[in-house]
Amino acid sequence: MLSNLRNTLLKCTAAVLLCTTYGQAIALEPSKAATNAEVFFIEPKNGAEITGPVTIKFGIKNMTVIPAGVQHPYSGHHHLLIDVDKLPDLKSPIPADANHRHFGKGQTEATLELEPGEHTLQLLLGDHFHIPHDKPVLSEKITITVKAKPAAAAK
Ligand SMILES: [Cu+2]
Question: Which positions carry the signal peptide feature in this UniProt record (predicted)?
């Protein structure tokens, strides 16, 4: 009777350990990118000079845009890296700050107010956990110049 109970307990413990280990293995497994996956800027073009708000259109090929938190093969959501010189750790969730913008609702465009001057823009796809895919789906980095708005006409 006692040994039966002990056996049951051992089996339960083993099952819990197995599940925990399995769960971690899944969490650590990066989402796969399609071999020919691409993200790119439809707008603006590299070298563009823009006055006023900047409308940015995100292009994607061979992957699906899906909201954050939804797990689906070969999909993810856009992240816009603004003036980022050094890429974040590509095996961890992408930081969320003024330079790393998440489009977790599955948006494919954004309009931003950027300070006048030169800015770099780059797109990085993230999976349901905001983690870049294996291998990362990263656009070319483009440079745009935001021009100062003309001063209001003197009265
Ligand atoms: Cu994200």
Answer: 1-27
Residues 64 and 125 in one domain: yes
Q: How many A from CA of 145 to the centre of ligand 1?
A: 26
Q: Is the pTM of this model over 0.90?
A: no
Residue ranges making up the domain that contains 23: 1-30
Residue 21 alpha carbon to ligand 1 centre in Å: 26
Distance, CA of 64 to CA of 150 (rounded, Å): 40
Q: Using alpha carbons, list the distances in angstroms from residue 68 to 32, 33, 108, 132, 134.
A: 16, 16, 13, 12, 17
Among 71, 50, 29, 69, smallest CA distance to 116 is for: 50
Q: What is the pLDDT of residues 123-152, one digit of tens each?
A: 999 999 999 999 999 999 999 999 998 776
